[in-house]
Amino acid sequence: MVNKLKIDVVTIFPDYVVMPLAQSLIGKAGQSGLVEITANDLRDFTSDAHRTVDDTPYGGGAGMVMMPTVWGDAIDSISNATSAAVHELIILTPAGELFSQSMAQELSLSEHLIFACGRYEGIDQRVTDHYRTRPEFRVREVSIGNYVLNGGEAAALVMIEAIVRLVPGVIGNPESLAEESHSIAADAQDEVLLEYPIYTKPSKWRGLSVPAILTSGNHGLIATWRREQAISRTEQIRPKTRE
Fold first, then answer.
1. 3-class secondary structure for the chain?
2. Is the pLDDT of residue 242 over 60?
3. Exposed, middle or buried by CB within 10 Å (0-12, 13-18, 19+), for 35?
4. CA 27/CA 231 separation, integer angstroms
5. What is the pLDDT of residue 237?
6. Is residue 92 within 8 Å of residue 143, measured between CB atoms?
7. pLDDT higher at 119 or 179
8. Of 148, 152, 141, nearest to 118 (Cα)?
9. How far is CA 215 from CA 22, 114, 175, 202, 222, in A?
10. Per-residue pLDDT tens for 189-239?
């Protein structure tokens, strides 16, 4: 059975995500019915004339904090509009767990993803705490790297692209997914390796030739060479991943 994934992005800048998500394979996945993606304007769930979504932080400090009231109304409304048994609430924050290929694979099997794109100093912690008490929600605080962005929209786009391409039927040749960086198992412990170097025609370009092993026709030797190259590249570029 083909997985149908519903994705809701909640943001104060819906135009930020609408156009990118309509492009390339993500857009085609939406058109073919494999995935349904909606950009929701957080301000549509406010109740005051100024459409306020933030206030000053308790305890003092710089910046503004996004209020739990508007986020609660938004998440409740969006989740109630779907028939999913479980809603994956993903709160984008620099303080979250690091996004990974294994997380992308897990989330690609979900029924419903809600991306909460914070701004300013972030979202009131009680939003995370409240939805963690509700059995129909699984809450993840997620970061895409050890740096700070102006908001969660760019992070949501990164995650959505990584997730949607793993939904069965989105990639034309599913075998290509198994040979990508972060998907290659190095040993019985499924250690993650970077992808081996890849080449195409012409066989010679600006004095550089394709490694002879790749034109040998010996697929066993080619597989061994690729594995060795993946291990070597990982040790050189990401040595900590092999500790």
1. CCCCEEEEEEECCHHHHHHHHCCHHHHHHHHCCCEEEEEEEHHHHCCCCCCCCEECCCCCCCCCEECHHHHHHHHHHHHHCCCCCCEEEEEEEEEEEECCHHHHHHHCCCCEEEEEECECCCECHHHHHHHCCCCCEEEEEEECCCCCCCECHHHHHHHHHHHHCCCCCCCCCCHHHHCCCCCEECCCCCCEECCCCCCCCCCEECCEECCHHHHCCCHHHHHHHHHHHHHHHHHHHCHHHHC
2. no
3. buried
4. 35
5. 84
6. yes
7. 119
8. 152
9. 39, 47, 21, 12, 9
10. 446 788 888 888 888 888 888 899 999 999 999 999 999 999 998 888 878
| CA 21/CA 13 separation, integer angstroms | 14
- The average pLDDT across 164-185 equals 67
Least confident window among 18-27, 91-100, 102-111, 122-131? 18-27
**Prediction pTM value:** 0.81
Q: How many CB atoms lie within 10 A of CB 190?
A: 9
Contacts of 29 (CB under 8 A, 6+ apart): 35, 164, 167, 169, 170
